[in-house]
Amino acid sequence: MVMKKQPTDIIYSFILYTFHLSSYVVLTYGGANTLHLMDGTSTAEIINGDIFFEIVDPVELEYTYRIRPAKDFGAPFNESFHVKNIPLVPVNPRYGCKAPDNLDDVEGNVAFVERGECSFKTKCIVAEKAGAKAVIISDIDHSSEDYFIEMIDDNTNEEVNIPAAYLMGKNGLMIMKTLQRLNRNYAIINLPVNLTFTPVHKMNQPPWLGW
Ligand SMILES: *[C@@H]1O[C@H](CO)[C@@H](O)[C@H](O)[C@H]1NC(C)=O
Ligand SMILES: *[C@@H]1O[C@H](CO)[C@@H](O)[C@H](O)[C@H]1NC(C)=O
Q1: pTM, to two decimals
Q2: Where would you find the membrane-spanning parts of this chain (predicted)?
């Protein structure tokens, strides 16, 4: 199945790029929950919309990563969803549009899928069928490495019953490249990590983001 190029994609990308810059400002003033942004969106809404996970192994990737839950499909990342010391497994083939060859590795773990070739929702449906507990999708093509892409529903009728989120391309690229370099099939993660009261300077952001 080929992914249709959706005009909304570009618009969303632009909005989210702006969004991302705003979030950066907000995070810099960490804790200012009443601060309102120019577009009228409150800090709390932005931070509450995104969640974080951390990689605890390999050591080269031991940072905290911000992800954006899918907008209108998938299960919520609510209080009952919490995975600890679980593998984040890049699916093979990497676009995750068909049942993975590494099904045994994906089953019971978090699937790591690249954007492209089919819709976000299709990737989630495929990952769920493979037994994944959640899906993290990232664009590791350089064109969108610095911002979040909103994952919106397509016309697929099937439901997604596991949580799904988007990881900024730059992080996706570094995770993928590092795992390949180390010849590793997975990283170990905790998802989510609660950073509500963590001041920004204490957040363990990946150094390549330049924050
Ligand atoms: C979390 O979401 C799942 C899936 O929708 C649901 O079954 C569960 O009851 C929810 N838990 C809470 C605490 O809201
Ligand atoms: C994070 O922790 C704070 C303080 O313990 C709590 O109020 C908040 O609900 C937690 N957030 C999530 C998403 O678990």
Answers
A1: 0.77
A2: 12-32
Tokens representing residue 114 in the block:
């690249």
Q: What does the pLDDT look like over 31-55, one tens digit per residue?
A: 333 233 333 333 443 455 889 999 9
Q: Does the beta carbon of 155 sit less than 6 angstroms from any atom of ligand 2?
A: no
Domains of the chain by start residue, with CATH: 43-209 (3.50.30.30)
Cβ < 6 A, ligand 1 pocket = 75-76, 78-80
Yes or no: say if 27 and 199 are a contact pair by the CB < 8 Å rule: no
Distances (CA, A) of 187 to 16, 27, 82: 27, 26, 17
